[in-house]
Amino acid sequence: MEHLEESLTSVKYRIVIPYRAEPIKGVDCLQCHRAKPGETLGAISLSMDLTHIRSASAKVLSVLTVAFLLALAAVALFMNLFITKISSFINELAQFMKSAGEGSFKYEIKTDPGYEASALKEILSQSFKSLHNTLNSVEEKVRSMIGYGVLKTGNVLSDTSKIVDELLNIYKFKRVIEKDRRKKDVYERIREVLEDYMSLDNFCLYEVNQAKNRMSLVYAIGSKSRCNEVILENAEECRAKRTGTSVDSREFPCICPNFGDNQACKEGRLHYYCIPAYVGGAVGNVVQLIYEPEMEPFINLLIQYIKGYLNEAAPVLEARTYMDMLREQSFRDQLTGLYNRRFLEETIDKLVAQTRRRGTALGILMVDVDYFKEVNDRYGHDVGDRVLREVAHQIQKSVREADMVIRYGGEEFMVLLVDV
Fold it and tell me: Which helix (H) or strand (E) holds 164?
Protein backbone atom coordinates (compact mmCIF):
# COMPACT_ATOMS: atom_id res chain seq x y z
CA MET A 1 0.00 0.00 0.00
CA GLU A 2 1.33 3.42 -1.04
CA HIS A 3 0.35 6.80 0.26
CA LEU A 4 1.63 10.29 -0.61
CA GLU A 5 1.03 13.07 1.85
CA GLU A 6 1.40 16.58 0.46
CA SER A 7 1.07 19.99 2.03
CA LEU A 8 2.32 23.43 1.19
CA THR A 9 5.47 22.91 3.19
CA SER A 10 6.18 19.18 3.00
CA VAL A 11 5.84 16.00 0.97
CA LYS A 12 5.96 12.51 2.54
CA TYR A 13 5.79 9.15 0.85
CA ARG A 14 4.63 6.10 2.80
CA ILE A 15 4.63 2.51 1.61
CA VAL A 16 3.64 -0.71 3.42
CA ILE A 17 4.97 -3.96 1.95
CA PRO A 18 3.33 -7.20 3.29
CA TYR A 19 5.56 -10.24 3.91
CA ARG A 20 3.81 -13.50 2.86
CA ALA A 21 4.76 -17.09 3.45
CA GLU A 22 5.77 -17.97 -0.07
CA PRO A 23 8.93 -19.47 -1.45
CA ILE A 24 10.79 -16.80 -3.40
CA LYS A 25 13.99 -17.45 -5.28
CA GLY A 26 15.06 -20.45 -3.22
CA VAL A 27 14.01 -19.03 0.16
CA ASP A 28 11.21 -21.06 1.72
CA CYS A 29 9.64 -19.29 4.70
CA LEU A 30 7.54 -22.33 5.59
CA GLN A 31 10.63 -24.11 6.82
CA CYS A 32 11.09 -21.58 9.63
CA HIS A 33 7.57 -20.46 10.27
CA ARG A 34 4.53 -22.32 11.06
CA ALA A 35 2.15 -20.86 8.60
CA LYS A 36 0.11 -21.71 5.67
CA PRO A 37 1.33 -20.87 2.19
CA GLY A 38 0.28 -17.35 1.21
CA GLU A 39 -0.44 -16.32 4.76
CA THR A 40 0.80 -12.87 5.77
CA LEU A 41 3.57 -13.18 8.23
CA GLY A 42 4.19 -9.47 8.71
CA ALA A 43 4.70 -6.10 6.94
CA ILE A 44 7.47 -3.63 6.25
CA SER A 45 6.47 0.03 6.58
CA LEU A 46 8.67 2.72 4.94
CA SER A 47 8.25 6.50 5.20
CA MET A 48 10.31 8.98 3.13
CA ASP A 49 10.40 12.77 3.29
CA LEU A 50 10.34 14.05 -0.33
CA THR A 51 10.10 17.76 0.51
CA HIS A 52 13.63 18.52 -0.62
CA ILE A 53 13.11 16.60 -3.85
CA ARG A 54 9.95 18.55 -4.58
CA SER A 55 11.77 21.82 -3.84
CA ALA A 56 14.61 20.85 -6.12
CA SER A 57 12.18 19.76 -8.83
CA ALA A 58 10.23 22.98 -8.45
CA LYS A 59 13.41 24.98 -8.79
CA VAL A 60 14.44 23.04 -11.89
CA LEU A 61 10.96 23.39 -13.34
CA SER A 62 10.95 27.11 -12.57
CA VAL A 63 14.34 27.53 -14.17
CA LEU A 64 13.24 25.56 -17.22
CA THR A 65 10.01 27.56 -17.44
CA VAL A 66 11.83 30.86 -17.14
CA ALA A 67 14.41 29.72 -19.66
CA PHE A 68 11.67 28.60 -22.04
CA LEU A 69 9.80 31.86 -21.65
CA LEU A 70 12.98 33.85 -22.16
CA ALA A 71 13.82 31.80 -25.23
CA LEU A 72 10.28 32.23 -26.52
CA ALA A 73 10.47 35.99 -25.88
CA ALA A 74 13.83 36.17 -27.62
CA VAL A 75 12.48 34.28 -30.63
CA ALA A 76 9.40 36.49 -30.68
CA LEU A 77 11.55 39.62 -30.42
CA PHE A 78 13.86 38.40 -33.17
CA MET A 79 10.93 37.51 -35.42
CA ASN A 80 9.34 40.87 -34.70
CA LEU A 81 12.55 42.72 -35.56
CA PHE A 82 13.04 40.60 -38.66
CA ILE A 83 9.47 41.03 -39.84
CA THR A 84 9.60 44.77 -39.05
CA LYS A 85 12.81 45.17 -41.07
CA ILE A 86 11.50 43.14 -43.97
CA SER A 87 8.16 44.95 -43.86
CA SER A 88 9.87 48.36 -43.82
CA PHE A 89 12.20 47.23 -46.58
CA ILE A 90 9.30 46.02 -48.72
CA ASN A 91 7.39 49.27 -48.12
CA GLU A 92 10.45 51.35 -49.05
CA LEU A 93 11.09 49.07 -52.02
CA ALA A 94 7.51 49.65 -53.19
CA GLN A 95 8.00 53.42 -52.79
CA PHE A 96 11.32 53.13 -54.60
CA MET A 97 9.74 51.32 -57.55
CA LYS A 98 6.84 53.79 -57.60
CA SER A 99 9.29 56.70 -57.67
CA ALA A 100 11.22 55.00 -60.48
CA GLY A 101 7.99 54.50 -62.41
CA GLU A 102 7.38 58.25 -62.12
CA GLY A 103 10.83 58.94 -63.56
CA SER A 104 12.63 59.87 -60.34
CA PHE A 105 15.59 57.72 -59.38
CA LYS A 106 16.85 59.81 -56.45
CA TYR A 107 14.82 57.95 -53.81
CA GLU A 108 17.09 56.01 -51.43
CA ILE A 109 16.19 52.91 -49.42
CA LYS A 110 17.29 53.83 -45.90
CA THR A 111 16.10 50.69 -44.12
CA ASP A 112 18.76 48.08 -43.40
CA PRO A 113 17.06 44.82 -44.40
CA GLY A 114 19.79 42.72 -42.83
CA TYR A 115 22.13 40.26 -44.40
CA GLU A 116 19.35 38.38 -46.15
CA ALA A 117 18.24 41.27 -48.42
CA SER A 118 21.22 43.63 -48.30
CA ALA A 119 22.53 42.27 -51.62
CA LEU A 120 19.16 42.98 -53.26
CA LYS A 121 19.16 46.52 -51.85
CA GLU A 122 22.67 47.17 -53.17
CA ILE A 123 21.88 45.79 -56.63
CA LEU A 124 18.71 47.88 -56.95
CA SER A 125 20.41 51.05 -55.71
CA GLN A 126 23.35 50.67 -58.10
CA SER A 127 21.13 49.73 -61.05
CA PHE A 128 18.79 52.69 -60.67
CA LYS A 129 21.65 55.07 -59.96
CA SER A 130 23.32 53.92 -63.17
CA LEU A 131 20.04 54.33 -65.07
CA HIS A 132 19.57 57.84 -63.64
CA ASN A 133 23.10 58.87 -64.67
CA THR A 134 22.66 57.36 -68.13
CA LEU A 135 19.38 59.18 -68.78
CA ASN A 136 20.85 62.46 -67.55
CA SER A 137 23.86 61.92 -69.80
CA VAL A 138 21.60 61.30 -72.79
CA GLU A 139 19.62 64.45 -72.01
CA GLU A 140 22.77 66.56 -71.63
CA LYS A 141 24.23 65.30 -74.90
CA VAL A 142 21.01 65.95 -76.81
CA ARG A 143 20.76 69.42 -75.20
CA SER A 144 24.29 70.27 -76.30
CA MET A 145 23.51 68.94 -79.76
CA ILE A 146 20.34 70.96 -80.40
CA GLY A 147 21.37 73.97 -78.32
CA TYR A 148 18.49 74.01 -75.84
CA GLY A 149 16.65 71.79 -73.39
CA VAL A 150 13.07 71.06 -72.46
CA LEU A 151 11.05 72.20 -69.46
CA LYS A 152 12.13 70.14 -66.45
CA THR A 153 9.30 68.22 -64.80
CA GLY A 154 11.36 66.11 -62.40
CA ASN A 155 10.44 62.99 -64.35
CA VAL A 156 13.74 61.91 -65.91
CA LEU A 157 12.05 59.37 -68.17
CA SER A 158 9.55 61.92 -69.48
CA ASP A 159 12.15 64.69 -69.83
CA THR A 160 14.53 62.40 -71.73
CA SER A 161 11.71 61.21 -73.96
CA LYS A 162 10.66 64.80 -74.71
CA ILE A 163 14.15 65.99 -75.60
CA VAL A 164 14.76 62.94 -77.80
CA ASP A 165 11.43 63.62 -79.53
CA GLU A 166 12.53 67.23 -80.03
CA LEU A 167 15.82 66.02 -81.53
CA LEU A 168 13.82 63.83 -83.89
CA ASN A 169 11.57 66.75 -84.86
CA ILE A 170 14.58 68.97 -85.59
CA TYR A 171 16.19 66.17 -87.59
CA LYS A 172 13.02 65.81 -89.67
CA PHE A 173 12.82 69.59 -90.12
CA LYS A 174 16.44 69.83 -91.26
CA ARG A 175 16.12 66.83 -93.57
CA VAL A 176 13.07 68.39 -95.24
CA ILE A 177 14.50 71.89 -95.73
CA GLU A 178 17.77 70.51 -97.09
CA LYS A 179 15.77 69.13 -100.00
CA ASP A 180 13.84 72.36 -100.63
CA ARG A 181 15.04 74.08 -103.79
CA ARG A 182 14.00 77.64 -103.04
CA LYS A 183 14.49 79.92 -100.09
CA LYS A 184 10.80 80.74 -99.91
CA ASP A 185 10.10 77.04 -99.37
CA VAL A 186 12.41 77.09 -96.34
CA TYR A 187 10.61 80.18 -95.05
CA GLU A 188 7.33 78.33 -95.44
CA ARG A 189 8.67 75.44 -93.34
CA ILE A 190 9.64 77.89 -90.60
CA ARG A 191 6.15 79.37 -90.71
CA GLU A 192 4.63 75.90 -90.34
CA VAL A 193 6.81 75.19 -87.31
CA LEU A 194 5.91 78.49 -85.64
CA GLU A 195 2.22 78.46 -86.46
CA ASP A 196 1.28 74.78 -86.50
CA TYR A 197 3.79 73.05 -84.22
CA MET A 198 4.32 75.86 -81.67
CA SER A 199 0.77 77.28 -81.96
CA LEU A 200 1.91 80.90 -82.39
CA ASP A 201 -0.63 83.21 -83.97
CA ASN A 202 1.14 86.57 -84.05
CA PHE A 203 4.62 86.79 -85.56
CA CYS A 204 6.60 88.21 -88.49
CA LEU A 205 9.61 87.06 -90.48
CA TYR A 206 11.93 89.62 -92.10
CA GLU A 207 14.72 89.03 -94.59
CA VAL A 208 17.81 91.24 -94.65
CA ASN A 209 19.44 92.27 -97.94
CA GLN A 210 23.04 92.88 -96.92
CA ALA A 211 24.08 94.39 -100.24
CA LYS A 212 21.34 97.02 -100.27
CA ASN A 213 21.06 97.37 -96.47
CA ARG A 214 17.33 96.85 -96.72
CA MET A 215 14.80 94.49 -95.19
CA SER A 216 11.74 92.84 -96.66
CA LEU A 217 8.74 91.36 -94.89
CA VAL A 218 8.52 87.69 -95.83
CA TYR A 219 5.21 87.14 -94.03
CA ALA A 220 3.20 88.50 -91.11
CA ILE A 221 0.83 86.23 -89.22
CA GLY A 222 -1.76 87.76 -86.92
CA SER A 223 -2.26 91.44 -86.08
CA LYS A 224 -0.67 94.37 -87.88
CA SER A 225 1.16 95.65 -84.80
CA ARG A 226 4.52 95.03 -86.41
CA CYS A 227 7.49 97.27 -87.12
CA ASN A 228 7.31 100.54 -89.02
CA GLU A 229 8.21 100.47 -92.71
CA VAL A 230 11.30 102.59 -92.07
CA ILE A 231 13.24 99.39 -91.34
CA LEU A 232 12.43 98.16 -94.85
CA GLU A 233 14.28 101.10 -96.38
CA ASN A 234 17.14 101.12 -93.89
CA ALA A 235 17.99 97.83 -92.17
CA GLU A 236 20.04 99.67 -89.54
CA GLU A 237 16.77 101.01 -88.11
CA CYS A 238 16.01 97.47 -86.92
CA ARG A 239 17.52 97.12 -83.46
CA ALA A 240 17.80 93.33 -83.67
CA LYS A 241 19.60 93.54 -87.02
CA ARG A 242 21.89 96.37 -85.95
CA THR A 243 22.95 94.82 -82.62
CA GLY A 244 22.79 91.18 -83.65
CA THR A 245 21.14 90.34 -80.31
CA SER A 246 17.60 89.54 -79.22
CA VAL A 247 15.36 92.49 -78.42
CA ASP A 248 12.92 92.04 -75.53
CA SER A 249 10.35 94.76 -74.90
CA ARG A 250 10.15 93.72 -71.24
CA GLU A 251 13.70 94.92 -70.61
CA PHE A 252 12.83 98.58 -71.12
CA PRO A 253 9.65 100.41 -72.18
CA CYS A 254 9.65 101.10 -75.93
CA ILE A 255 13.15 99.66 -76.29
CA CYS A 256 12.78 99.78 -80.08
CA PRO A 257 11.33 103.07 -81.39
CA ASN A 258 10.30 101.47 -84.68
CA PHE A 259 7.78 99.01 -83.25
CA GLY A 260 4.38 99.70 -84.74
CA ASP A 261 2.42 100.03 -81.48
CA ASN A 262 4.76 101.26 -78.76
CA GLN A 263 1.82 102.84 -76.97
CA ALA A 264 0.27 99.42 -76.35
CA CYS A 265 3.69 98.17 -75.30
CA LYS A 266 4.12 101.06 -72.85
CA GLU A 267 0.67 100.39 -71.38
CA GLY A 268 1.55 96.72 -70.94
CA ARG A 269 -1.07 95.44 -73.38
CA LEU A 270 1.50 94.01 -75.80
CA HIS A 271 5.03 92.64 -75.66
CA TYR A 272 7.40 91.70 -78.46
CA TYR A 273 10.54 89.63 -78.76
CA CYS A 274 12.79 89.88 -81.82
CA ILE A 275 15.24 87.09 -82.63
CA PRO A 276 18.06 87.71 -85.13
CA ALA A 277 19.12 84.71 -87.21
CA TYR A 278 22.66 84.66 -88.52
CA VAL A 279 23.14 83.58 -92.13
CA GLY A 280 26.67 83.54 -93.49
CA GLY A 281 28.16 85.35 -90.50
CA ALA A 282 25.69 88.26 -90.58
CA VAL A 283 22.08 88.80 -89.55
CA GLY A 284 20.09 87.40 -92.44
CA ASN A 285 16.64 87.18 -90.89
CA VAL A 286 14.69 88.53 -87.94
CA VAL A 287 11.75 86.74 -86.33
CA GLN A 288 9.43 88.98 -84.34
CA LEU A 289 7.02 87.49 -81.77
CA ILE A 290 4.13 89.69 -80.62
CA TYR A 291 2.10 88.51 -77.63
CA GLU A 292 -0.15 89.54 -74.77
CA PRO A 293 1.16 89.57 -71.15
CA GLU A 294 -0.72 86.40 -70.21
CA MET A 295 1.22 84.52 -72.90
CA GLU A 296 4.58 85.40 -71.33
CA PRO A 297 5.33 81.99 -69.68
CA PHE A 298 4.47 80.19 -72.91
CA ILE A 299 6.67 82.50 -75.00
CA ASN A 300 9.55 82.14 -72.54
CA LEU A 301 9.36 78.40 -73.02
CA LEU A 302 9.29 78.63 -76.82
CA ILE A 303 12.13 81.11 -77.35
CA GLN A 304 14.89 78.51 -77.04
CA TYR A 305 12.97 76.16 -79.34
CA ILE A 306 12.63 78.88 -82.00
CA LYS A 307 16.32 79.74 -81.78
CA GLY A 308 17.16 76.06 -82.19
CA TYR A 309 15.09 75.77 -85.37
CA LEU A 310 16.54 79.01 -86.77
CA ASN A 311 20.06 77.74 -86.09
CA GLU A 312 19.29 74.56 -88.00
CA ALA A 313 17.79 76.53 -90.88
CA ALA A 314 20.72 78.99 -91.10
CA PRO A 315 23.11 76.78 -93.17
CA VAL A 316 20.33 75.89 -95.59
CA LEU A 317 19.27 79.54 -95.97
CA GLU A 318 22.90 80.49 -96.53
CA ALA A 319 23.24 77.91 -99.29
CA ARG A 320 19.98 79.02 -100.94
CA THR A 321 21.06 82.67 -100.66
CA TYR A 322 24.31 81.93 -102.45
CA MET A 323 22.42 79.98 -105.09
CA ASP A 324 20.07 82.94 -105.61
CA MET A 325 23.08 85.26 -105.86
CA LEU A 326 24.72 83.03 -108.45
CA ARG A 327 21.50 82.77 -110.36
CA GLU A 328 21.04 86.53 -110.16
CA GLN A 329 24.60 87.07 -111.37
CA SER A 330 24.01 84.74 -114.29
CA PHE A 331 21.08 86.97 -115.29
CA ARG A 332 23.03 90.22 -114.89
CA ASP A 333 25.36 91.98 -117.29
CA GLN A 334 28.63 92.46 -115.43
CA LEU A 335 29.44 95.78 -117.12
CA THR A 336 26.17 97.68 -116.75
CA GLY A 337 24.43 95.74 -113.96
CA LEU A 338 21.34 95.37 -116.17
CA TYR A 339 19.57 92.12 -116.92
CA ASN A 340 21.14 90.20 -119.79
CA ARG A 341 19.71 88.36 -122.76
CA ARG A 342 19.58 85.08 -120.84
CA PHE A 343 17.22 86.66 -118.33
CA LEU A 344 14.96 87.71 -121.18
CA GLU A 345 14.88 84.18 -122.57
CA GLU A 346 14.08 82.73 -119.13
CA THR A 347 11.29 85.13 -118.17
CA ILE A 348 9.61 86.32 -121.37
CA ASP A 349 7.08 83.46 -121.51
CA LYS A 350 6.03 83.94 -117.87
CA LEU A 351 5.88 87.71 -118.34
CA VAL A 352 3.64 87.41 -121.41
CA ALA A 353 1.34 84.93 -119.62
CA GLN A 354 1.00 87.24 -116.62
CA THR A 355 0.24 90.20 -118.90
CA ARG A 356 -2.49 88.25 -120.70
CA ARG A 357 -3.98 87.07 -117.40
CA ARG A 358 -4.19 90.66 -116.16
CA GLY A 359 -5.62 91.83 -119.49
CA THR A 360 -2.97 94.52 -119.94
CA ALA A 361 -0.26 95.22 -122.51
CA LEU A 362 3.50 94.75 -122.51
CA GLY A 363 5.46 97.52 -124.21
CA ILE A 364 8.86 96.95 -125.81
CA LEU A 365 11.45 99.64 -126.46
CA MET A 366 14.63 98.96 -128.42
CA VAL A 367 17.53 101.34 -127.87
CA ASP A 368 20.64 101.32 -130.05
CA VAL A 369 23.67 103.54 -129.46
CA ASP A 370 24.75 105.02 -132.81
CA TYR A 371 28.40 105.44 -133.70
CA PHE A 372 29.48 103.45 -130.67
CA LYS A 373 32.15 101.65 -132.68
CA GLU A 374 33.74 105.00 -133.52
CA VAL A 375 33.88 105.85 -129.79
CA ASN A 376 35.72 102.59 -129.11
CA ASP A 377 38.08 103.11 -132.04
CA ARG A 378 38.87 106.73 -131.21
CA TYR A 379 38.89 106.79 -127.39
CA GLY A 380 39.47 103.14 -126.48
CA HIS A 381 37.38 100.43 -124.87
CA ASP A 382 37.62 101.89 -121.36
CA VAL A 383 35.82 105.02 -122.51
CA GLY A 384 33.37 102.86 -124.45
CA ASP A 385 32.57 100.94 -121.27
CA ARG A 386 31.96 104.19 -119.41
CA VAL A 387 29.57 105.29 -122.20
CA LEU A 388 27.63 102.03 -121.96
CA ARG A 389 27.37 102.27 -118.17
CA GLU A 390 26.13 105.87 -118.38
CA VAL A 391 23.59 105.04 -121.10
CA ALA A 392 22.33 102.12 -118.98
CA HIS A 393 22.09 104.40 -115.94
CA GLN A 394 20.11 107.03 -117.84
CA ILE A 395 17.69 104.48 -119.28
CA GLN A 396 17.20 102.88 -115.83
CA LYS A 397 16.55 106.28 -114.31
CA SER A 398 14.00 107.18 -116.99
CA VAL A 399 11.65 104.22 -116.59
CA ARG A 400 9.46 102.95 -113.77
CA GLU A 401 10.72 100.59 -111.10
CA ALA A 402 8.43 97.85 -112.40
CA ASP A 403 9.90 98.10 -115.91
CA MET A 404 12.83 95.91 -116.93
CA VAL A 405 15.92 97.24 -118.70
CA ILE A 406 17.92 94.59 -120.55
CA ARG A 407 21.26 94.77 -122.32
CA TYR A 408 20.25 92.92 -125.47
CA GLY A 409 23.54 93.05 -127.35
CA GLY A 410 26.81 95.00 -127.51
CA GLU A 411 25.35 98.52 -127.65
CA GLU A 412 21.70 97.48 -127.90
CA PHE A 413 19.27 97.80 -125.02
CA MET A 414 15.68 96.61 -124.58
CA VAL A 415 13.12 98.03 -122.16
CA LEU A 416 10.06 95.94 -121.20
CA LEU A 417 7.26 98.26 -120.12
CA VAL A 418 4.95 96.26 -117.85
CA ASP A 419 1.19 97.00 -117.87
CA VAL A 420 1.27 100.00 -120.22
Answer: helix 156-177
